[in-house]
Amino acid sequence: MISSSDANTALIQLESIGKSYGEIRVLQDIDMQVQPGTVTCVLGDNGAGKSTLIKILAGRHEPTEGTLLVEGEEVRFRTPKDALNRGIATVYQDLAVVDQMSVWRNFFLGQEQTGFLGRLKEPEMKAITAEELKKMGVDIPDVDVPISTLSGGQRQVVAIARALHFGAKVLILDEPTAALGVKQSGMVLRFVRMAAERGVGVILITHNPHHAHLVGDHFVLLNMGKQVLDASRDEVTLEQLTQEMAGGGELEALSHELRQ
After folding, report:
1. Best exposed site among 130, 155, 189, 254 by fewest CB in 10 Å?
2. Is 142 helix (H, G, I), strand (E, B) or coil?
């Protein structure tokens, strides 16, 4: 159980969170906290409950049991806007970008700056986009190009930079490296750490223990909707994390059974 002193500093705290659809329990007894400037990795195979947990944190689904606190205050998100208003931004796998639109238009999508008679402040928005990307170490010479011309890693960075610019305190990244190669994955993981170094609490959803261990400060492992691991970096090795992720205990039992 998380102490009350921890709760006062945690950006997000989950206490015994559960979610049921009728008689089907997809999440149960999830306890987790996210501190500023840290990367909390949530791992699990398909069907582990990761997507449901994201939707609860992002305000898309309400939990059916348990308590959700943001900066020590109990909250109940009814819409994604409620979560955004509390500084929780979620970057999904599809990135919510419009391929044909320019980089800067995607950066300000839904948050456009307008002037007289609603005219877009194009020069200002282009300059801000270029500057924010440069802060993240990405130099895109022309932010007027369609975002579809960028690599998968660069598009992820645009989404991360956008969330940080618009005041995210907590950044949830849904499998950001799932469709990327080694080099592009490395780029995204560097920016995950960079976001944490800026004081943001990052929640990295992944099924890749190697990527998690490279950047993570804390690890939560889900299996069939239950929390089977909750450990800080100094409490678990990559080998242990990989074995737990692979269902080491179950595999060992199966191996024993097959040898009979």
Report:
1. 254
2. coil
Q: Kindly report the CATH number that applies to the domain delimited by 4-94+169-259.
A: 3.40.50.300
pTM score, whole prediction: 0.86
Pairing of strands 73-75, 65-70: antiparallel
Helix (H, G, I), strand (E, B) or coil at 223: strand
- Per-state percent for the chain, helix, strand, coil, to nearest 5: 40, 25, 35
**229: Cβ contacts below 8 Å, ≥ 6 apart:** 219, 220, 221, 236, 241, 244
Task: Please report, for the chain, the start and end positions of each structural domain, with discontinuous segments joined by +.
Answer: 4-94+169-259
Quickly list DSSP for 82-116.
Answer: HHHHTTEEEE-TTTT--TTSBHHHHHTTT---B-G
Q: Are 225 and 49 in contact (CB under 8 A)?
A: yes
Written as one letter, the residue type at 14 is L
DSSP run (H or E) holding 67: strand 65-70
